[in-house]
Structure formats: C-alpha cells, structure tokens
TrEMBL record:
Superkingdom: Bacteria
Organism: Streptomyces narbonensis
The protein's name: Biotin-dependent carboxyltransferase family protein
InterPro entries from the UniProt entry: CT_A_B, Cyclophilin-like_dom_sf, PxpC
Lineage of the species this protein comes from: Bacteria, Bacillati, Actinomycetota, Actinomycetes, Kitasatosporales
Alphabetized Pfam families for the sequence: CT_A_B (PF02626)
This protein's UniProt keywords: ATP-binding, Hydrolase, Nucleotide-binding
SMART domains linked to this entry: AHS2
Length: 290
C-alpha cells in the first residue's frame, strides 16, 4: 500500500466516500448518488488545492458523529458542511478552512454541533477505484466503496502545492426551517385541490426515518383525487413522491430511478443541499414556482 493513504481509526455512525456522483446511468437503473451537499464538496476541494476539474474529487461524508483518521503522509485537509469540532493529536484545529496534518497524526472529526453531515476533503482527493466514472458510495444499489469501517485504508491522489485563495469562506448554517422551491407535476392531477393547497401552505417536519435515499416528512396527508396506482415511471433527483400514507418523500442522491407512486412536484436542485443538514423535526415548507 502506498504511503499516500489515510487509515480509518473510528468510522462513525455512517461515513461514506462521495464525489459529485455518477451521472448518465439512470436508464440502467443506477442513481446519481454523490454528496448530498455538492456545494460543500466543491468549496472544500478548492480550499485544499483541488482546483478546476478536481473540485469534484472524492471526499468523506460523515453522519451525525464524525470519524477519526490517521494519514500515512502529510496531507492538507479541510472539514466543512455541518459545524463540528476538529482536533489534530488532541489539539483543536480549524473548521471550514485548510489544515496541514502531519504523517501519523490523529485527525478527529467530532459530532455535528448543528446539522447532520460533515465533509472531509484531502489534497489530491481520495483515490479509491471508480465505478462507472465515480467513486461515490451508493447505499441503494451497493455500487462504490463500502461505508467506512475501522482499520480500512483509503488511498490518496497526488497532492498539489496550490491552495485555495479563501482562508475562511462564508458557510451557510444548517437550516432552522427548510424552504424548498418546487414545480408542480407531473402527477399533481392525482391529488385533490385541498391537498395541493395544503402542500403549498402547510408546514411539514423532517422525519427521523430520512436517509440518503429520501427526506421523509411528517405532516398533512395529501388526499388523492383518483384511485389505483401508476405504472412505474422514471424518477429524478428532487422528485416529491407521495406513497399511500399521503406523506411526501423528497428523493435525494441515492433515490431509485423508477417508482410507481405519483410525484406531486419536483424540488429545484439548488435547494437540495440544505436538505443534507436538516435534522429530524426541522420544519419544511414548499413554495410553488414556475
């Protein structure tokens, strides 16, 4: 194993390798996957010197309680996304900017103080083997590397001496209320007028059952205007599918590529990054736009 690698000391509740996903394979039943907050990935990669096409270099996505890592070589690291404590060999280190970690040192990414998912970027990126052009872990299909486990060793790509020009960029805080802009359809005609009014005016809350596949919501059930079920049809990122219980589910990165429940609306992709940090109980509102 090359010295340009990082060993996993503590894997955390769920830590996965993610990049910007594998685009263009939905017709084969393969979801996009990739980081739930791609904006954070691009910014962190710039901070550690992964510029241009390397802004999509593979990073780690942690969930709730972080992870601990020991690089085998000196490497530049940046931790962002959900705010969390960062330590190097027990000493506090900066969050949200580039930090040089010596070879053999212990990098500890702590539990999220707010939000859910923190990201760890490395100079050179993680160089695990790509599958269909992406290094992303897809929890639905099982493609890509397995979620991290203690003792695993992840190779790093070639480092660069170039560093990002922003020392402390502004980071959007995890949302107190998640506001999602949607375009109604394609199956909004499957719901009553009262249901569509409730969808656009009432508040929902993020369910603890949410995951990388979908943001499950608690709140008013949407009543259907017609019985029966649809034949399976294609699903896109941000689709708001309504299962038989009437509670909407917003499809995220690991969503299935087909489904038979009606889609009442589709969320703007630019609004989905905030969903990565919406903890259970966060209020959610939908705003219909053209």
């Amino acid at each position: 194993m090359t010295d340009r690698a990082v060993a996993v000391v503590r894997a955390g509740a769920l830590t996965t390798v993610q990049d910007l996903g594998r685009v263009g394979y939905a017709h084969l039943g393969v979801p996009r996957s990739g980081a739930l907050d791609p904006g954070a990935v691009r910014l962190l990669n710039r901070l550690v010197g992964n510029l241009g096409a390397r802004e999509g270099a593979a990073v780690l996505e942690t969930t709730v309680d972080g992870c601990a890592l020991r690089p085998r070589c000196a490497v530049t690291v940046a931790v962002g996304g959900a705010p969390c404590p960062v330590r190097v060999d027990g000493r506090p280190a900066a969050w949200g900017t580039a930090v040089r970690v010596p070879a053999g040192s212990l990098l500890e990414v702590g539990a999220a103080v707010r939000g859910l998912r923190s990201y760890v970027a490395f100079g050179g990126g993680l160089a695990v083997d790509p599958v269909l052009g992406s290094r992303a872990t897809d929890l639905l299909s099982g493609l890509g590397p397995a979620p991290l486990a203690e003792g695993a060793v992840l190779p790093l790509g070639a480092d660069t001496a170039v560093r990002g020009s922003v020392d402390a960029p502004p980071w959007p805080g995890p949302p107190d209320e998640l506001v999602l802009r949607v375009r109604l359809g394609p199956r909004d005609d499957w719901f009553t007028a009262a249901a569509l009014r409730a969808f656009a005016t009432r508040a929902y809350r993020v369910s603890p059952a949410s995951n990388r596949i979908g943001l499950r919501l608690e709140g008013p059930a949407l009543e259907r205007a017609r019985p029966g079920e649809l034949a399976s049809e294609g699903m896109v990122l941000g689709a708001v599918q309504v299962p038989p219980d009437g509670r909407p589910v917003v499809f995220l990165a690991d969503h299935p590529t087909t489904g038979g429940y009606p889609v009442v609306a589709v969320v703007r992709e630019t609004d989905l990054g905030a969903a990565a940090q919406a903890v259970p109980g966060t209020p959610v509102r939908f705003i219909a736009v053209r």
